[in-house]
Structure formats: structure tokens, C-alpha cells
Write a structure and sequence with these properties.
Helices cover 32% and strands 17% of the residues. The protein is an alpha/beta fold. Strand 3, helix 3 and strand 4 form a beta-alpha-beta unit. Helix 3 packs parallel to helix 5, helix 6 crosses helix 8 and helix 8 crosses helix 10. The protein is globular and about 55 Å long.
């Protein structure tokens, strides 16, 4: 099989490339080599340094391609509102340009890197009033240390639950808005160009090859970098935020399975799957596992507008339809990450 892989030099993209090559697939690698994503890392020999926003100019690379695996994106939650144009350009315009080039060249199969951030806040229940979608946490509540979402009827703290793929999409950051837009462009393309799309909604990905310490690094890398500097890891809010951390090797395998699935002509033109470990964990526990320094953690009570309280998802649909299940559990992978090689 011949796969065009965008973002092939990135943290996740490079792991996918290795997994595809291990299964004897031919990979055509494309990457812009953005410094925010790659630091000082140089591209491997054979990688085409191209911008997906200019896909019409290099669309000949699509000839003979069976599947496009689109990983190229600007990642992170967004540091400031000034990041909005960059997210819209790299993620949304880039995806739209790539899809247009695929249609022009008759390429009809796409695996898209999406994210759990498309859900915004997760799924919540009130003991008295049942399932209740939470509103946006107010500055007054956050400043007062009230971090849990509250029932809009009785103001009792809401209890989190696993999110399924049919949940509402409610982006709450600039990055999240761009990932929702990518999915919507892909869905529109699938309908208009008779294409097939598998969108993989990654949860918190970690592992070897992560950027060490940029504004767009994952929180696991930020905790580890603090340890290396001799500083205590700083945990926002009260550390009770629940997330799902999935190892990059498992994410790569999910993409291998999705590439096979998208070629099997599923009944639906667009299918989305959660890619997660299925083992929710608190941010405080993540910091402790990564650093081994639970007694030195600093729980700051600080917060960031746009952050969500809890977002954990069900892995069942990916297991049933893709045959995917995570093999690295956070309780093993996160301590190992303490010694993993990162990107400078």
C-alpha cells in the first residue's frame, strides 16, 4: 500500500511512519518542519518539505497514492488569542487545500488526525437531575477555587462520565475550533467527492519524541522538563482534572488500523473514533507518575480560560470497529516517559 503522510516528521507522524514501514507499506513523507513542532530537528532524507496550504503546487505527490494520512497541524490549546490566525491557516486552510488537491487527483481515502478537544467539556451527570451538559465555568468560580462543573438546575457538583463519539461537538479553545473545522471540511469533501474518511480523535498523546518544552508541548513533557530543571512540577487548578493519556506507539497502531479500515469502503462516508487508553487519570497523578516526586508537586490553584475540567472518552467503538485497543497503560507508560528521549 502507498500512503502519503503529512506531518511525517512530527511527534506522532514519525511514529506512524515507522509503524507503516514495519508493515511493508510505502510512505511518501511530507512536512513543513515548523520550528514550534520540531525545534532544531532536521527532516529525514526523502521527506518532501512542503506546506499543505500549497497542496495544489505539489499535488503530483498524490499520484499512485492509496490513502492520505493527514497529521500535519499546529497543535496545543492556544497560548493567546493571537494564535487564532495560525490555527486557522495551518489546520483549516491546510486541510481544505489538501482535500481540494486530493479531489483533483482522484484520491478518495483519508485518515484524519482529530482530537478529543472537539468535545469541549466531557459528559456529566447530576445525582438528582441526570445527564446535564455544563456551561462555561465562570471567572468568578475559577478565581474562588470552585473548579468542578455545577448542575445548572441545583448547582450541585456534576460527576464526569465517558464520552462517546456521538457526543455534541463544542470547541472551547482556538485549537479545538480548528479541529472541529477540519472534521467538517473532511465530511463535506467526503460527500462532494465520494470520499471516505476515518477521523481519529486523539486523547493526550505522550511518549518518545515529544517536544521538550515549547508553549505547545504536552503537559507530560512540561512536567518532565520542570523535573530536569530542578523545579517542582506545577499543577493547575486542584490537580483533579481527569484526562486519558495514550502512548504514541498505540496512536501509531490506531492509524495503521484506520488506514486498512478506510479502504474497506465502510457504509458511512465519515467515521470518527476515540483513540485513548480507556484508563482515566488525574493531572496530579500524571505529574506524580512522570516525575516520581509526588511530595514536591505544587498545586497552584491557577487556571487558564478555555481549559475544560474533565474529558475522558469511551474506547469501545474503536475496539469494535477498528480492532484497536491500547497496549501501554498510563501507570506503566508515564513512569517510563521520565527517561524517554525528547526533542529539543
Amino acid at each position: 500500500m502507498r500512503v502519503l503522510l503529512t506531518g511525517a516528521e512530527g511527534f506522532i507522524g514519525s511514529a506512524i511512519r515507522e509503524a507503516l514501514i514495519a508493515e511493508d507499506h510505502e510512505v511518501v513523507s511530507v512536512d513543513l518542519m515548523l520550528p514550534a513542532a520540531h525545534g532544531v530537528t532536521e527532516a529525514q532524507a526523502g521527506t518532501h518539505q512542503r506546506d499543505v496550504r500549497d497542496a495544489a503546487d505539489w499535488s503530483a505527490l498524490l499520484d499512485g497514492i492509496d490513502v492520505v494520512c493527514h497529521q500535519a497541524a499546529m497543535v496545543g490549546a492556544g497560548v493567546t488569542v493571537a494564535d487564532l490566525p495560525a490555527y486557522a491557516a495551518h489546520n483549516d486552510l491546510g486541510t481544505a487545500a489538501l482535500l481540494a488537491a486530493m479531489a483533483e487527483r482522484g484520491r478518495t481515502h483519508l485518515v484524519l488526525a482529530s482530537s478529543m478537544v472537539v468535545y469541549g467539556e466531557g459528559r456529566y451527570f447530576c445525582p438528582e437531575h441526570g445527564e446535564r451538559p455544563p456551561g462555561v465555568r465562570s471567572v468568578m468560580a475559577l478565581s474562588g477555587g470552585r473548579f468542578d462543573n455545577e448542575c445548572p438546575v441545583c448547582s450541585a457538583p456534576l460527576t464526569w462520565a465517558l464520552v462517546n463519539e456521538d457526543a455534541r461537538l463544542e470547541p472551547r479553545s482556538s485549537y479545538a475550533a480548528s479541529k472541529v473545522a477540519q472534521e467538517h471540511y473532511a465530511l463535506a469533501w467526503a460527500r462532494q467527492a465520494a470520499g471516505r474518511v476515518v477521523a481519529l480523535r486523539y486523547h493526550n498523546v505522550y511518549g518518545p519524541g515529544m517536544p521538550r518544552n515549547t508553549p505547545y508541548s504536552g503537559v507530560a513533557a512540561i512536567f518532565r522538563s520542570a523535573l530536569e530543571r530542578g523545579e517542582p512540577p506545577r499543577v493547575f487548578e486542584d490537580g483533579g482534572q481527569m484526562r486519558d493519556f495514550v502512548h504514541v506507539a498505540d496512536v501509531a497502531q490506531a492509524n495503521v488500523l484506520a488506514i486498512k479500515a478506510v479502504l474497506e469502503e465502510p457504509a458511512e462516508a465519515f467515521a470518527a473514533y476515540n483513540v485513548c487508553s480507556g484508563r482515566p487519570i488525574s493531572i496530579r497523578d500524571v505529574a506524580a507518575l512522570v516525575t516520581g516526586a509526588d511530595e514536591k508537586l505544587v498545586v497552584t490553584g491557577e487556571y487558564r480560560l478555555g481549559d475544560v475540567r474533565h474529558i475522558v472518552a469511551s474506547p469501545e467503538l474503536a475496539r469494535k470497529q477498528l480492532g484497536f485497543h491500547a497496549t501501554v497503560i498510563p501507570e506503566v507508560g508515564l513512569p517510563e516517559f521520565r527517561h524517554a528521549k525528547l526533542r529539543d
